[in-house]
Q: What sequence folds into this?
């Protein structure tokens, strides 16, 4: 008889007295077991590590950007480049107060956001309606190709098409935003409606729950995650296509500013506009949407098994 | 002859309020060609015990020692869900766990597939089989490496009563023919009485509460009086141990 | 007899069948187009038949031969764009897979790169196009290819990383319990389970990279499909803009039907077919692997469109 599986021998052999006996009602201030201490130490190490590496990421990238950018880009481009084309982070940050004081920041932001708001609002409502329509087989077939086209074609073609037909009138950019975002909304809503929990609705009906309460307590909570996803994706695309239409023809807005600043080689201001939109997007993401989701989806947290 | 020795085994998960003691000071000695059932309410650490024995998890403290006839033998394991590779055919799933990819291994796999009556399904993907068939593939896979020790974790609990019954019968036949040491987790006392020589009873908190020897001749028919009486006795033990409340 | 057999089948009138609806959509688009044309009374907006005529002339190289007004010919522009697309796509796939694997396997690497990957993901292709155009100038392929890489690479990274993170733990445990050696586990468990994610990466890198590429061609190049559509836009030629827009749509659909769908079919033979899933749903279901992944990263994601 030979021994095998020595590798399966557990690693630690400890005194049994190490192990704290637990009952269902644990006493307050119970002493931590050795295993708990080990796990806690591991977790603390992980968190510290994560932050160290994250900070290292920022430091390395920003340092390269500030001091090595020019050299790297010249190497890639194979020719010497004007310093103005390659602003470092410090120079970009320095332009912020100027733009802010001019009041340009707010007015341009306002113009772009208004367009996104209107365009995406319209697209969302239309997209949601189409999503509802596609529960019908015939209408589903009717819209299918339009949805595929919208999902697969570049936003650029819709921006140019809208602009050449309507010029930079509201219909021009609304068309562009609609064509790039409605499909996303309609597909999400359609999936959500298709997955409606029929069993729960039947249960509610069996208990004689009123139609309004059924919508409030079953349909809307069920659809909420689909709607959140649609808003999230739709918005991120809407802003990109809006800025694109502004580049081609507009006299206000972030896209317009990007065009102007890049035309006069003021890349520091150019990146400031990019950066400010990032900050705004981050705010919308982390503060507005995340909060709403956290509040709305508390029930989704699962109990660990 | 295989031997499984477990000494002062302790396993816990989590920290603070999340802390769960899955196994507490478990001592075990299993020797020879026996069929050992492990019963107890859900969450009492049955799966954790098998996972530690098979090396999937490590213990918090304590020792496990498995001694087998052949040096490089590996225990077989049948899981609650079949755990087949969905992107490999049935035959490839069996070949996946073989030490050598030779004709001999292939013939052996075919033999065990035949034994679970799936000899003609070797080319199918698991997704094309029913739940019962998938579980049979899982059983054939565990047997196909011809292990001395076999772990089974509630292998029939997802199946309907009729399929489960015929698989139990097949399993018993295979065990009789191959004479392995089997550790069989179940929450079905009837199943445990029908199949095993020995029943280990676990309670919540991972305590090994009782070790019952079932000394009845095989094959055992669940409708047989002696088997029914044994089942009633085990259930009475449960009551004494206050397990039924949970 | 045959007549009786046919009669016993419930006969759905043609116009009520889904096929009819599908045919109706393009017709409806054309009708609306004419209506807009008539109501708008715009001098530069053109009706469908003129646009189709233009497209036909482009396809047969008639435009260039007749008056030499076209930028060059459609096929050259198209070929150039496709070559750039494949170059950018290939680089994005290779580099993105390496970074994604590292990020999936190591928490430290993930922490190092994560925020920057998200920043690149959220950056509109327009920004790359304007910036690269200034750095590299309009000649050559560099600016469009780099734009294509930058647009596509975050999707590759995120998908590969999610793939590594979502590998089926229970199958690895199974393999370990049976003492299967590591290289065999890699080949039989890790790689196949990564396939859907790699596939999603390919798909996104391709379609998003393409969208980034054409924008770069508009702002940072003097050739390619993007440049061609911009040429017609600057010339105030509606037929050119809409005609090329339709070429783009056709290319996108061809990519979908001729490349991705057959590829998906091949790669996922082991997946049981669930009923008769339509094109759009299927496409969406496949995309959900990524979208699920992206949902975690939130809205800074989305397609690098427009
Ligand atoms: N990986 C894990 N992380 C945290 N807790 C776990 C883990 N695995 C098991 N547990 C907990 O350990 C206890 C025993 O689990 P298990 O062995 O699966 O029970 P069962 O007897 O039903 O098979 C349960 O309370 C379970 O929640
Ligand atoms: Mg279990």
A:
């Amino acid at each position: 008889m030979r021994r095998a599986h020595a590798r399966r021998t557990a690693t630690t052999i400890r005194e049994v007295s190490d192990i704290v006996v637990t009952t269902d009602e644990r006493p307050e201030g119970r002493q931590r077991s050795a295993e708990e201490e080990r796990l806690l130490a591991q977790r603390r190490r992980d968190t510290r590590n994560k932050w160290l590496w994250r900070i290292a990421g920022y430091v390395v990238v920003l340092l390269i950007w500030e001091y090595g950018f020019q050299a790297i880009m010249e190497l890639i481009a194979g020719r010497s480049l004007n310093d103005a084309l390659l602003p470092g982070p410090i120079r970009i940050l320095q332009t912020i107060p100027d733009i802010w004081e001019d009041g340009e920041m707010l007015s341009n932001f306002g113009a772009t956001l208004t367009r996104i708001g209107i365009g995406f609002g319209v697209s969302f409502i239309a997209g949601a309606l189409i999503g509802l329509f596609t529960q019908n087989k015939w209408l589903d077939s009717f819209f299918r190709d339009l949805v595929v086209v919208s999902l697969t074609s570049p936003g650029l073609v819709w921006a140019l098409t809208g602009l050449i037909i309507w010029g930079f009138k509201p219909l021009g950019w609304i068309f562009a935003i609609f064509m790039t975002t409605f499909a996303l909304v309609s597909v999400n809503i359609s999936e959500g409606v298709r997955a409606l929990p029929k069993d729960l609705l039947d249960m509610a009906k069996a208990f004689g729950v009123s139609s309004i309460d059924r919508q409030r307590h079953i349909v809307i909570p069920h659809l909420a995650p689909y709607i959140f996803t649609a808003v999230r994706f739709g918005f991120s695309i809407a802003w990109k296509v809006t800025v694109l239409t502004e580049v081609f023809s507009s006299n206000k807005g972030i896209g317009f500013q990007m065009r102007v600043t890049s035309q006069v080689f003021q890349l520091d201001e150019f990146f400031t506009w990019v950066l400010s939109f990032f900050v705004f997007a981050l705010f919308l993401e982390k503060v507005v949407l995340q909060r709403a989701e956290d509040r709305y989806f508390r029930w989704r947290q699962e109990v660990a098994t | 002859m295989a031997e499984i020795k477990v000494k002062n085994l302790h396993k816990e998960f989590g920290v603070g309020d999340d802390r769960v003691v899955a196994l507490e000071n478990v001592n075990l000695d299993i020797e020879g060609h026996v069929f050992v059932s492990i019963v107890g309410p859900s969450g009492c650490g049955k799966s954790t015990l098998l996972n530690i024995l098979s090396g999937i998890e490590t213990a918090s403290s304590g020792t496990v020692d498995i001694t087998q006839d052949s040096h490089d033998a590996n225990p077989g394991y049948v899981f609650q869900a079949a755990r087949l590779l969905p992107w490999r055919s049935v035959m490839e799933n069996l070949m996946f766990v073989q030490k050598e990819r030779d004709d001999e291994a292939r013939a052996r796999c075919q033999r065990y597939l035949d034994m679970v009556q799936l000899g003609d399904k070797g080319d199918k993907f698991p997704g094309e089989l029913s739940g019962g068939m998938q579980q049979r593939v899982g059983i054939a896979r565990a047997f196909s490496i011809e292990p001395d020790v076999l772990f089974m974790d509630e292998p029939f609990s997802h199946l309907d009563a009729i399929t489960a019954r015929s698989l139990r019968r097949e399993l018993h036949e295979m065990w009789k023919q191959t004479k392995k040491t089997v550790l069989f987790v179940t929450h079905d006392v009837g199943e445990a009485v029908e199949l095993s020589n020995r029943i280990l009873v676990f309670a919540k908190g991972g305590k090994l509460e009782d070790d019952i020897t079932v000394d009845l001749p095989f094959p055992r028919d669940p409708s047989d009086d002696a088997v029914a009486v044994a089942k009633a006795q085990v259930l009475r033990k449960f009551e004494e141990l206050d397990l039924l409340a949970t | 007899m045959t007549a009786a057999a046919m009669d016993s089948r419930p006969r759905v009138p043609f116009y009520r069948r889904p096929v009819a609806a599908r045919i109706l959509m393009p017709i409806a688009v054309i009708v609306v187009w004419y209506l807009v044309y008539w109501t708008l009374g715009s001098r530069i907006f053109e009706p469908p038949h003129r646009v189709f005529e233009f497209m036909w002339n482009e396809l047969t190289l008639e435009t260039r031969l007749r008056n030499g007004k076209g930028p060059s010919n459609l096929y050259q522009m198209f070929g150039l764009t496709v070559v750039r697309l494949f170059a950018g796509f290939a680089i994005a796939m290779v580099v993105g897979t390496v970074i994604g694997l590292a990020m999936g396997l190591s928490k430290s690497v993930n922490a190092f790169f994560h925020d920057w990957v998200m920043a690149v993901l959220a950056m509109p292709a327009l920004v790359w196009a304007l910036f690269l155009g200034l750095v590299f100038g309009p000649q050559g392929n560099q600016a469009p290819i780099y734009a294509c890489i930058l647009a596509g690479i975050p999707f590759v990274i995120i998908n590969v990383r999610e793939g590594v993170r979502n590998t089926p733990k229970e199958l690895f445990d199974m393999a370990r319990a049976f003492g299967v050696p590591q290289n065999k586990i890699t080949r039989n468990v890790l790689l196949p389970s990564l396939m859907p994610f790699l596939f999603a990466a390919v798909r996104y890198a391709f379609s998003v990279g393409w969208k980034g590429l054409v924008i770069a061609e508009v702002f940072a190049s003097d050739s390619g499909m993007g440049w061609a559509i911009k040429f017609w836009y600057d010339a105030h030629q509606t037929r050119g803009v809409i005609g090329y827009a339709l070429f783009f749509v056709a290319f996108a659909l061809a990519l979908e039907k001729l490349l991705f769908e057959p590829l998906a079919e091949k790669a996922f033979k082991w997946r049981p077919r669930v009923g008769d899933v339509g094109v759009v749903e299927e496409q969406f279901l496949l995309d959900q692997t990524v979208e699920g992944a992206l949902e975690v990263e939130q809205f800074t994601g989305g397609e690098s469109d427009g």
Notes: Residues 58 and 74 of chain C are 6 Å apart (CA to CA). The pocket of adenosine-5'-diphosphate (ligand 1) is lined by residues A 305; B 13-14, 20, 22, 42-48 (CB under 6 Å).
